[in-house]
Amino acid sequence: MSGLSPKYPLTYDGKDGFYTLNKEFNEMVQQNLKNLILTSPGERIMDSKFGVGLFNYLFEQDTIEVRQSLSEKITEQVSLYMPFLEINAVDFYPNEGNYEFQSNFLGVIIDYTIPALGVDEQLEIMVSDF
After folding, report:
1. pLDDT tens digit string along 38-67?
2. What is the pTM of this model?
3. Rounded to a whole number, what is the distance in angstroms from the first to the last CA of the chain?
4. Residue 10 CB burial class (10 angstroms; 0-12, 13-18, ≥19)
5. Can you tell me the distance from the alpha carbon of 94 to that of 7, in angstroms, rounded to the nearest whole number?
6. Is residue 111 within 8 Å of 89, Cβ to Cβ?
7. Number of CB atoms found within 10 A of residue 73's CB
């Protein structure tokens, strides 16, 4: 069966060819969105403005301003590199004032819509210092 793109992390799959493949558009879109969020600006060759750089926010103070800045950066990057998506909401872990998680931990939940497919999806990304 043919696929749309390689699935990350790369794993061997003799059924699809050499690598396991994304076979659904929404699966491929979610993988590309995750790549956009985790890539730091300057990390992608030939496009130094690509990426949000979620790890760069890991050791920032947990303030409303920092969360707002990160939310705006996500929205800006998606509108520039993935204009076929609509961001509905960006939420953070730990919730404001709720520090039950270990320090040096940041989680982002992005609710988005793929209007062309009529699909609502959610991407959850958690990063920590280990």
Report:
1. 999 999 999 999 999 998 888 888 788 989
2. 0.84
3. 38
4. exposed
5. 29
6. yes
7. 19
